[in-house]
Design brief:
Pfam families: Polysacc_deac_1 (PF01522). By secondary structure, this protein is α/β, with parallel strands linked by helices. Helix content is 40%, strand content 11%. Helix 4 runs parallel beside helix 10 and helix 7 packs across helix 8. The radius of gyration is 19 Å and the shape is globular.
Length: 304
């Protein structure tokens, strides 16, 4: 019975993706074509002439690029050299777990929303644009239940491996999908794999985005890693949270979590109680940042 339910879920997702493409969106999980009329129009709206001349990184699709042995001048790469520039890496709010989930929406997202609702918690969802186009009702529910939406690009491709124009396409198609689903124009983003340097930052700023990383390896739940058991993941987070709780707690942290699959979603109800048990508060990005205007624009009343 479970096998048939999984098959039905997969089929429904495939059909939703096909419907999204019929509406004019690019193929899912692929970098959008920069030669399309829509992308050309977007490129006319942004001046990229001042972008730093940092070479495009080489990488395998679906993964982060390998790090150089030495950092290039003015590169400031976050995951390779711990250079965050003006990225947001901590929650400024004292004693607060910055609650964020990447890679949705997916078929697993509703179960996570059910859990968060039961605990009266609001998160920031860093959305993959192609998933939004396929599953807009999940995003509409996120808005209706008080969650915050942010960008995680269209295809989840490492941004340092893309041209400036491709970065624009990744961001704008995601922006369009969310805007059409909710009436909200995104303001915050998280780069896939945390892969960002000063060239990428330049393009993102030109598009009006603020970058939110996470608070280092100690606050990566590793929920995405199939080689680690849940018990190991829980043990690692317990150690990190014990260390945090023993400190002054003058600032909070951003945790890296995902709603990309049933396995990552099932881990959340095991991890969040670790924070509750240590009297740590929870907040999404606007709560952490004290931002009363968490979107670039509200073009129309959100669909709820």
């Amino acid at each position: 019975m479970v096998k048939y339910l999984v098959s039905i879920t997969v089929l429904a997702t495939v059909l939703a993706t096909v419907q999204a493409q019929l509406k004019g969106y690019p193929p899912s999980e692929k970098v959008p074509d920069v030669k399309s009329a829509q992308v050309k129009a977007w490129l006319k709206e942004v001046d990229l002439s001042g972008a730093p001349k940092i070479p495009i990184a080489k990488g395998i699709p679906g993964d982060a690029p390998k790090c150089n042995k030495r950092q290039l001048p003015n590169e400031c790469h976050w995951t390779c050299f711990d250079c965050a520039a003006d990225d947001i890496t901590v929650c400024p709010r004292a004693n607060t777990w910055g609650l964020t989930f990447d890679d949705g929406p997916t078929a697993a997202t509703p179960a996570l929303l059910d859990y968060l609702k039961s605990k009266h918690l609001n998160a920031t969802f860093f959305l993959i644009g192609s998933n939004v186009a396929a599953l807009p009702k999940h995003v509409q529910r996120e808005v209706a239940e008080g969650h915050h939406l942010a960008s995680h690009t269209w295809s989840h491709t490492a941004l340092t491996t893309l041209t400036n124009e491709q970065i624009v396409a990744e961001m704008k198609w995601t922006e369009k999908a969310v805007l059409e689903a909710t009436g909200l124009r995104l303001k915050y983003m998280r780069p896939p794999f945390g892969d960002i340097n000063n060239r990428v930052r330049y393009v993102l700023k030109k598009l009006g985005y603020l970058v939110v990383d996470w608070t280092g390896d100690e606050f990566d739940t590793n929920d995405w890693d199939p080689e680690l058991s849940d018990s190991k993941k829980i043990a690692l987070m317990t150690k990190s949270l014990n260390k945090y709780a023993a400190g002054k707690r003058t600032k909070g942290f951003y945790m890296l979590q995902h709603d990309q699959s049933a396995s990552t979603v099932k881990l959340a109800p095991k991890l969040l109680p670790l924070g509750i048990a240590r009297n740590i508060s929870f907040g999404n990005v606007p709560v952490c940042q004290g931002d009363s205007q968490p979107y670039q624009a509200v073009v129309k009343a959100p669909v709820v």
